[in-house]
Write a structure and sequence with these properties.
The chain is α+β, with helices and mostly antiparallel strands and 438 residues long. 40% of the residues lie in helices and 16% in strands. It comes from Sphingomonas sediminicola.
Length: 438
């Protein structure tokens, strides 16, 4: 296999040069057509494809794939995947923000979208856990008055089907699945056809939603249409349009796969109503604490000065002193932390009859309260700019950096901010600061 993949005419030219150099008579030279016929007799189309494009491409072009039957029970098989949206979004102040990622959970039985998460962050466990949390409980669409119908689909999957992404292999994801009674099903790598339902959904979204938005990137003539200059939507408006399409249009439009199984005109919403009335919905054990259950997981010991997770310290003297005296300094505790708020952690006390969660605040409460993982990185970068080279960054400097970013970010969004050296950090703050639950 080569990247050039010359046509058969080019191969015939090489053959012709070889014949001429060998001093064979001209009558021995095959014509261009005869040369192609000779190759077709000698090699099958699959063998030619393997030589030119590789075994995987040959498998996809010449293999036979049997369509999968729909599961009978809703939430029995749910696919999860990420998609980089072909639309450039802007900040509220009009500056370019970039292309967002969406994470989607799709129910195979009904083809309903159970939940989504939209972020500028590349795929990670954080986006996976928020998408799962969004899928697990009923949706409140009161903030979207333009949406006419209800998003009735929610629940906990039995089998969660994913690819081989790192976010689906980490200990936090496995613990979340165990807590919610989900069985993860990792598919073989580079086999998108094994989760074709969600791949087709992404393709349909691209045609029906993304390609119609200002700032769409899938255009052949880049000179005639410049995506960045044509961008008009911010993340909030993009989210509203996507959810409106899912709830008002996709869920109420006949689906070909459902029509094959249940009859003409069957929509995802109709299939959901019928099947859930028959089989019910798998609910989370404690819907109010689903975000806690899906938090990032750490196994930590209680040290004399608190619990340390990376650069962060968490301390509650009375609680930790009691636990340390009762169970010793060597006991390993299970700790959950929400990436959207590093201001606290939850420690699972499973030593009594009834396990319960204990909230432990961050030692630097004034800096870390309500601060997400990405926000802390931005605060740290800004604090370095405010600190003399070689000196240690102080907590007071971090607090000043946070206050400055919050104050000037508000001015930036209102169009009142004048550009200076912290401008790049403010754009980062606006882009990554609010990780949100959508």
């Amino acid at each position: 296999m080569t990247l050039l993949r010359p046509p058969s005419t080019a191969a015939w030219e090489v053959y012709k040069d070889c014949v001429e150099e060998s001093s064979l008579p001209a009558t021995e030279l095959m014509s261009d057509r005869g040369f192609r016929d000779y190759i077709d007799r000698l090699y099958t189309p699959e063998e030619q494809c393997i030589a030119r494009k590789g075994r995987k491409k040959a498998f996809l072009e010449h293999g036979i794939f049997i369509p999968q039957d729909l599961p009978d029970i809703p939430l029995d098989e749910v696919e999860i995947d990420h998609c980089l949206v072909d639309v450039i979004l802007i900040h509220k102040n009009g500056r370019i923000a970039g292309r967002p990622w969406i994470t989607v959970l799709l129910d195979r039985a009904t083809r309903c979208v159970l939940g989504i998460h939209i972020t500028f962050q590349p795929p990670s466990y954080h986006s996976v856990r928020l998408a799962i949390a969004h899928s697990a409980y009923p949706k409140d669409l009161s903030t979207f008055p333009s949406i006419k119908r209800k998003w009735a689909c929610f629940g906990v999957p039995k089998y969660l089907i994913s690819d081989q992404g790192k976010e689906f292999k980490c200990a936090s994801f496995k613990a979340t699945c165990a807590a919610l009674d989900i069985i993860p099903v990792p598919l073989p790598g580079r086999s998108p056809w094994l989760k074709g339902a969600i791949e087709r959904l992404f393709g349909y979204m691209g045609i029906a939603v993304f390609d119609l938005m200002d700032g769409a990137t899938k255009f052949n003539d880049v000179e005639a249409y410049r995506s960045a200059k044509s961008a008009r939507l911010d993340k909030d408006e993009f989210t509203k349009r996507l959810i409106r399409w899912i709830v008002d249009r996709y869920h109420h439009r006949p689906h070909p796969k459902l029509e094959e199984r249940y009859g003409r005109g069957t929509t995802p919403d109709m299939a959901w109503q019928v099947l859930t009335s028959r089989y019910g919905i798998r609910l989370a054990r404690d819907p109010e604490q689903v975000h806690l259950i899906t938090g990032e997981i750490f196994n930590c010991r209680i040290r004399s000065d608190g619990i340390r997770i990376g650069p962060q310290w968490y301390l509650d003297k009375d609680v930790m002193e009691r636990l340390r005296k009762r169970h010793g300094p060597g006991k390993v505790w299970r700790v959950h932390r929400d990436d959207t708020d590093w201001g606290y952690i939850r420690l699972l006390d499973d030593t009594g009859r009834v396990p319960h969660w204990i909230t432990i605040p961050n030692a630097n409460r004034e800096v870390m309260s309500g601060v997400s993982r990405e926000q802390f990185k931005i605060i740290l970068d800004e604090a370095r700019q405010m600190t003399r080279e070689g000196a240690e960054i102080q907590v007071a400097t971090l607090a000043r950096a946070k206050n400055r970013l919050e104050r000037e970010s508000a001015a930036l969004q209102n169009g009142e901010y004048k550009r200076n050296s912290t401008h790049k950090y403010l754009l980062k703050w606006t882009k990554y600061g609010t990780l949100g639950r959508w």
